[in-house]
Amino acid sequence: MISYEKELDIDNKLQNCFKITGILNNVFRPQNPLKKTGIKLYNTLALPVLLYGSETWTTKARDARRITAGEMKYMRRTAGYTRKDYKTNTQITKELKITPILDKLLEYKRNWITYLLTYSMEQSPS
């Protein structure tokens, strides 16, 4: 039997993250020089909501695009750019000095696998 619970989990977490970033976008207008504050709030409020439990996700290309699009929508606005400014995602992440979510997601997965391997080696009968 195939379970789609992980897919629903990703969708729910993305929607919650989008709600938080929408609220942050409404509070912090790009005219204000509050880039650092906006990034800190994003890292404190939105990222943990999205990344909680992400160690066990099987991320599909569709999910990766949605995650990146949501992140860049917020970061583009935080940097004060619109889509018409023709700034690439990498230019914006370098300017704001942030690590993309997908890189953090991979890091979480690597840490989780490392933990599982060390835990299973400690628990194995010798």
Question: What do you see in this structure?
Answer:
By secondary structure, the protein is mostly helical. The chain has one domain. The protein has five helices and no strands. It has helices at 5-27, 35-51, 61-79, 89-96, 101-123. Helix 1 runs antiparallel to helix 2, helix 1 (5-27) runs parallel beside helix 3 and helix 3 (61-79) crosses helix 4 (89-96). The longest helix is centred in the N-terminal third of the chain and has 23 residues, at 5-27. The protein is elongated and about 60 Å long.
Shape: elongated
Q: Calculate the terminal CA-CA distance, rounded to whole Å.
A: 36 Å
Task: Classify the beta-strand content into a percent band.
Answer: under 5%
| Integer count of domains | 1
How many helices in DSSP terms?
Answer: 5
Overall pLDDT: 81
- Taking Cα atoms only, what radius of gyration do you get, to the nearest Å? 17 Å
Global structural class: mainly alpha
Q: Which residues sit in consecutive blocks of at least 5 with pLDDT less than 50? A: none
| Overall helicity | over 70%
Q: Count every beta strand, where a strand is a DSSP E run of 2 or more residues.
A: 0
Major beta sheet summary: none
Order of helices and strands, N to C? HHHHH
Detail the topology: elements first, then pairings.
Layout: H1 5-27, H2 35-51, H3 61-79, H4 89-96, H5 101-123
Write a brief structural summary.
71% of the residues lie in helices and 0% in strands. The protein is mostly helical.
